[in-house]
Amino acid sequence: MSEVINIKNLSFKYHDGSEALKNVCLNISENGKIAFVGGNGAGKSTLLLHLNGILKGEGELKVFDLELNKNNLIEIRKKIGLLFEDPDDQLFCPTVFEDIAFGPLNLGLPEDEIMRRVKESLSKVGLEGFENRSPHHLSYGEKKRIALATLFSMNPQILALDEPTSNLDPKNRRKLIEILKSFKGTIILATHDLECVLELCERVIVLKNGEILRDGETGNILSDEKLMIESDLEIPLSIKISNIKN
Fold first, then answer.
1. Domain chopping of the chain, boundaries
2. Is the Cβ–Cβ distance between 221 and 206 less than 8 Å?
């Protein structure tokens, strides 16, 4: 299977001098379902925000063999859809239609194609008929799904999602996970929701203090009690219950 993301010796410091990433090396295969996990300050979101150039560190980062630089940034952002943790950071237009149409419109697509993409994207997130609604009058769960629809309208090959299930009630969390399960491309999560990781991802990358602590198969990683303690995490409840039954 071909690789879609290649990272070599990626390091990043914030303006205050704190080192958020330290010589991270990582390859991600096409259609992989990957999770970045770790405690607060581990570097999960920082690494995710490098994938489409919102942050720029030292080292090498390629997406579909395109080096992440100013010349390739537009093309790379067509391929990677980034979902922010707070949907209000992603929704800024007066109506849902305008938010979802914003990306395709800036690609210069014809009106009929834009209309088709908006309708199709709303269908994917289960919010058909929301075109004329104000995003800021929606529930938090609906906002999350509309923010995801703005990514779908660009037909991305990779979804990079920062805490996608955070602050969702159980019903909306379940809906979001089911939507992500139906996505056919590559998914990369940065999350504390390890139950979501168990359900959605086959590979987990554990970060601590900006470094990769472990990289492996999801079940093996999340059931390793010593590793979870070292990573400021807890074994998911479903694994604990399964261990008791066995």
1. 3-245
2. yes
Q: Which two tokens stand for residue 88?
A: 């209000």
pLDDT tens-digit profile of 192-225? 999 999 999 999 999 999 999 999 999 999 999 9
What distance, in Å, lies between the first and last C-alpha atoms of the chain?
35
**pLDDT score of 176 more than 90:** yes
Residue pair 45/190 in contact (Cβ under 8 Å)? The answer is yes
**CA 160 from centre of chain:** 3
For residue 237, what pLDDT is reported?
79
Dihedral of alpha carbons 93, 95, 97, 98, sign = negative
Alpha carbon 152 to its chain's center: 13
Fold of 3-245: Rossmann fold (3.40.50)
β-partners of residue 190 are 36, 162
